[in-house]
Amino acid sequence: MNTETMTSCQDFLTQYDKTNGLPAWQSPTVQALQTGFVAALTDQALLLATGEDAATFLHNQLTNDVEHLKDDQAKLACYCSPKGRMIASFLYWKTSEGIVLQLHESIKPMIHKRLQMFILRAKAKLQDISTDQLVLGLGGAAAPSVLSRWFPDLPREAYAKTETSFGTLIRVSDADHIARYQWSTSNAIAQEVWPLLEKELVMVDASAWRLTNIQAGIPQIIDKTQEKFVPQMVNFELIGGVNFKKGCYPGQEIVARSQYLGKLKRRMALARIAYDGDQAIMPGTEVFTSEEEAQPCGMIVNAEWASEGVCLCLVEIKVADQEAGSIHLGSSTGSILTFLPLPYPVIDVTA
Description:
- By secondary structure, the protein is of the alpha+beta class.
- The chain has two domains: about 5-215, Gyrase A, domain 2, CATH 3.30.1360; about 265-340, Elongation Factor Tu (Ef-tu), domain 3 (Beta Barrel).
- It contains nine helices and 17 strands.
- The protein has helices spanning about 5-20, 30-35, 55-60, 110-120, 145, 185-200, 205-215, 250-260, 320-325; strands at about 35-40, 45-50, 75-80, 85-95, 100-105, 125-130, 135-140, 160-165, 165-175, 180-185, 200-205, 265-275, 285-290, 300-305, 310-320, 325-330, 335-340.
- It is globular and about 60 Å long.
C-alpha cells in the first residue's frame, strides 16, 4: 500500500479519537475486557516471507517448526542469537502469499535486516507488509458473535486459524477465562468494518491487548529486552514456542542444553505491583530481593496498567528467590511484587 493510503488509515484512527472526545484510546476496564472489546494493535509489525524456499529458510532460523506448518494453524517461535538469547519473539502463520511473521514494531528494522542478511542463495524474499495490514485484537463474551459476521467458522482452539476474504483470524490463548482473537486484514477492510465494531464492542488502546497477553502469560520481546533471555527463562517452551525435535537454528545447542542439563533455575512469573510512579513500568527494569541491594534477581519482561495504581507484569526471576522472600521493583526497597498464578503449569519438561 502506498504512503497516501497508509496516512489515510492513520488519519482515520486519529479522527476516531477526536470524534469521541478522547485524548487517547479508552483505558481498559475489567467490564470491557470481559464483555467485549477491540483494539488496533498499532505496536505490532508484519513481515512476509515468500518464495519456494521461504519455509525452509525460516525453519533453519527459528526455534519452532515452519516446514510442517498447517494452513489452519498459527505458532509461536523465537529468533535467537548464536548464544541462545532471544532477539525476537514471533507469532507466525501461512497465507496464500507466504508466511507471515508478527513481531513488535520496535525490533522490526533490526530483525528484518538480520533475516535478510541470511537469505543468501535461498529462493526467498522478505518484505515489510506492516503498512498494508492492520492487526486487530478482539476479546470478551461479545467478540465471537461479532466476528461471526465475517468468519462463519470461528477457530475454536488456541492458535487455530481461519481465513476468508476479510482476512486472517487466529484464536490466541484465553486471558482471565475470556476468549481472544487476532484479526489481520487490509486497511481498507478495517475501515469498512470499523463502524460495526465500534457499535458492538468497546474500543480500547493496544495496551489493553498487551494486558491480556500478560494475563495469558504470553511474553513479547521488544527492543529493551533483546538478548536478555534464553527461551526457557520466559517459559517459551511451555507455551509451544520451541520444538526440540527440529533441526538446527542459531543458538540451538545452548537452548537444548538449558532444557536437558539439570533443573531450570530461572523462570517467568506473573505478578501484580501496587505502583505510584508517574510513568509506566518499563520492560527491562530489574527486580531485587530485600536482602540483596547490589545484585538484581530478575527483570521485567512486559508490564501494563491493570487499574489506577496497579500494574500487572511478567517477570523473569530466579526460582529460588521467588519462593524465598519479598521481591522489589528497581531496588531492594522499591515497590513489592505480589506473585499470582499463571494460567499454565510451570514445570520442567524434557520432551
